[in-house]
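Quick question about two entries, pasted in order.
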Amino acid sequence: LGRILSRVSVDFSIVDLDLPFSLLFAIGVTMNAYTNMGVLAVIAWQILFVSIPVVYTLFRLQKYYFATAKELMRLNGTTKSLVANYLAESVAGAMTIRAFGEEDRFFAKSLTLIDANASPYFHNFAANEWLIQRLETLSAIVLAASALCIVLLPTGSFSPGFIGMALSYGLSLNMSVVFSIQNQCTLANYIISVERLDQYMHIPSEAPEVIEDRRPPQNWPLLGKVEICDLQIRYRPDSPLVLRGVSCTFEGGDKIGIVGRTGSGKTTLIGALFRLVEPAGGKIVVDGIDIGTIGLHDLRSRFGIIPQDPTLFNGSVRFNLDPLGHHSDIEIWEVLDKCQLKDAVEDKELGLDSFVVEDGSNWSMGQRQLFCLGRALLRRSRVLVLDEATASIDNATDTILQRTIRTEFADCTVITVAHRIPTVMDCTKVLAISDGRLVEFDEPTKLMENQGSLFGQLVKEYWSHFQSAES
């Protein structure tokens, strides 16, 4: 997030405002510097013996400076992303930070990140001063050489006016050369922002939303059968596999629980189902159709999901439940009743037109999760995914969520990524993942009877922690 914020704020500002002016100034002062040196060469051509080596030395110094300055600017951009990301996270979690009294720790951490960001900028400034000092020294040498050549010329070679003009241009040469090189260096530093933006311009796009000649039937998926065939996932071409050849089949109407330790690949498997990340190998087939061959809109619009972090949008209750306006108010009220939200919405003066602020902060966490359940109920998808949907809600809301899913999605395929082990105890089958590999896939009661079962270990650990917390 910080990398995106840094690019769309600082880098865009530099490209839109600073870069054009820097380009104009660099062209202007460079032309002025070369004009001054040309006038000196016309008046006293002997100055070329000094000017040419000096100009060559200036370019060498500039090249030497660029090698350091560009890397410092890249470091500055990278560390600025950390500051922006930390600020965004701190603002989003300000209530939690205050509740736990951790303001001083977060403030100290922010100062550390700001210092880390200021360090490359300070060194870049120091490198700039290093360059300017040497430029001024060389320019003074050229001026002194010009004056010496004029003094050594025979009397009457040039009129006093020409000599005065040469000395005048020589005096201004110092400033013009320094400004020329300095603006060129500033321009080169600003080009780093173009480079950073260019990196995001060439990110591969997702697959097309719709592939006309490969559109699935209107009633797809009809059964909700999911076949995962030797699925391999990696997030970058040169990174290790996150999922390593997962193969299993979810029959239509099955209630599947996915368990595993943190980082085992549970959420990655769900992401592959929605094609948030494309497989490096293998495939996923839903009701006989390879999901990798159809458009993303046709895929994602046919599945329902209740995420771990519920997302609400700035607008009305009606808009958040039915953003596309495909359902009537009667259907929406029926869904609100099933989600135990009807009373809460009726208490609002505007009912379905009641306002929902961004991220739904004027509703409780449990109510936001129930809103996501309401969306899934309106969609009536044959495949429903719960990505640790009960991880951040209270037990009462968890009970409502589970009861509604059992009754309203009884004939649908429900895939649950479990955070609380009791959530998956009534599932048809449990899929256990460890280090990206499928290690168990069977009924929960059978897995618990197996002494060496990973699922059995997770159940024991959960109840052990639960009893410790109760005591």
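Here is the second entry:
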Amino acid sequence: MSRWTRRNLLRGTLRGSAVAVSLPFLDLFLDGNGEALANGLPLPTRFGTWFWGCGVNTSRWFPSKLGAGYDLKDELRPIAPWQDKVTVFSNFNCVLDGRPNLVHWSGVMATLSGAAPLKGGVNGGTSELPTIDCLVADYMGQSTRFRSLELACTGQSGVSYSMRAGSTVNPSEVDPVQLYRRLFGPGFQDPNKAEFTPDPAVMLRKSVLSSVKDDRDELMRTAGAADRQRLEQYFTSVRQVEQQLEHMLEKPAPAEACQLAKEPGAMALGPTWDVATRTHDVMAQLLVMALACNQTRVFNIALSNAGSNLRKPGDPVSFHELTHEEPVDEKLGYQPRATFFIERSMETFASLLKHMDGIREGSGTLLDNSLILATSESNFAKIHSVDNLPILVAGRGGGRWKSGQHISGNGDPSSRVGLTIQQVIGMPVNAWGQGAMEVTRPITEVMA
């Protein structure tokens, strides 16, 4: 009989004291039935995703002209000041290939993970593969204090489109005050200060993880195949924590644009439009300074959940409900009450671009040194269409991305956008996706 039970901990000794690290749930717990900085380093590239729910009106959002100098339709007009830094993608699809169209889920997971999911719906679901932000964080997130930051604007921490695989969601920060304290509280080390003192608490945490190595090795020898796979995933995350802690014990590199942000006051949280967009604005400003201070290089922002519960003050009917219940105005050709949220969503995205483009870095801006993948889960939400998904990429990737174009995918999988981003960032990947969404051909028109 195995000595390992659910109550077991990995144990070790640190400075003469016993220490322990908990374990994930395993089968063996069951019975038999179961440019350049001052230090010479190049300016870092940042990557983020920005999600809004319930799609667009095709004729009012997508440009008619391809290439540079594309025309801006009414719903996309808010990005006008940054048009030369925003790439618009049209006619890129979620290719279902026999899989179900899981309403308000298939489209976003296809674009962000490269695979059409098998389970899900308006309240979320599963992902067949890790989302692109996780892959990018694995590649370039180990040298920062936070591998990535997830933010949601409607007060619900479960609203997140960052997933490792399966049903595991990386939860979102929803309160600007708590986000501030996490970023700029006692653990923050100003990269521009001359003196540096390692945090004793960080030193202790790193030593605890290192001290349980012998128990960890014994458990790996004892576990069955399925448990070894789970443990390998678990210990990979433990090693990532160790790497993060190692970085936190080193003096951070100078960051010319870094300034200590001010703590925001307490705010109401929720899906009312004014409240959600105020939350977005405050958290976006904190995020931008976190990026400028090299606290993280990867982020995800969800303006709302996919079946958007955003609503106007005093109105019990949500954006999602409007997309299905409001008739299309015969003279206008669209749903005016629902379209309010589409237009304002693009204004909110433009506000993030304004904040990022206002931070000078080297000869450019923070936006110039970033790539932000913005998308929604459907084209026209009234019919849950997942062809011609609305996709934007903002930024220039440190000069490696040819921005300011409108590119048509001619019906190709939307995963081509994600593959291109990964290659532009420098990741060694030649193919990405699963099944009909697997692609090997990047979009060379945007590759500098």
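Reply: Residues 45-189+260-446 form a domain with the Alkaline Phosphatase, subunit A fold (CATH 3.40.720.10). The mean pLDDT is 87. Hope that helps.
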